[in-house]
Design brief:
alpha+beta; four-stranded antiparallel sheet; 5 helices; rod-shaped
């Protein structure tokens, strides 16, 4: 019984090898030169032979493993992309620049304006196209001029002063400091003209 089982296993192995060799490209010549195995007629009690009418004596037909499909060689793919498909290139990442961005904030100094009490000069800070700060860098001083200059400073200067609020030189005149107010507006106009 063991001999019969070994004979069937050998027959199946040789048939499978023959099919693999025949199915591989470029090996048809090798497969043709291989000897064919003779069928063995085992009759073990556990195996029922299926009679083949073409074989005399009712010999069992070989296993259906010979008809199994042959798998492709490892590492090769058989699927091919259809000719109608288009491949698109993935968008590339935007380029980064190593150049530091330039600051859009700049300081602009207005002309120095002289009046009967002294000199007035205004500086503005511009960010983009807006005035974000203003300061009087020089105002008349001494005596009553200190008081009037302080009033002008508190009304016009800073990020919350009239200059930033109005974004122009059309400021309200400070009461009691008309000369200093007018000189401030004149210096401010020259700074705005330079900035814009």
């Amino acid at each position: 019984m063991r001999r019969a089982l070994l004979a069937i296993t050998g027959l199946a192995a040789s048939t499978t090898a023959l099919v693999v060799f025949k199915g591989s490209p470029g090996t048809s010549q090798v497969a043709q030169n291989l000897p064919t195995a003779q069928p063995v007629n085992p009759t073990p009690q556990d195996v029922e032979p299926s009679a083949d009418p073409a074989v005399p004596g009712g010999a069992p037909t070989p296993s259906k493993t010979a008809d199994a499909p042959v798998s492709p060689k490892p590492g090769k793919t058989t699927a091919r992309p259809s000719s109608g498909t288009k491949t698109t290139k993935a968008p590339s990442a935007p380029r980064t620049t190593t150049k530091a961005p330039q600051s859009t904030t700049r300081r602009v100094l207005g002309d120095e304006v002289k009046n009967e009490y002294g000199y007035v000069r205004v500086q503005i800070v511009v960010s983009g196209n807006r005035i974000v700060d203003a300061v009087a860098v020089s105002l008349p001083s001494g005596g009553e001029s200190d008081i009037h200059s302080g009033d002008v400073r508190s009304s016009y200067d800073g990020s919350g002063g009239q200059v930033v609020q109005k974004q122009n030189a059309n400021l309200n005149t400070v009461s009691g400091a008309t000369e200093t107010s007018n000189s401030y507006k004149q210096s401010l106009r020259s700074a705005i003209e330079q900035a814009f």
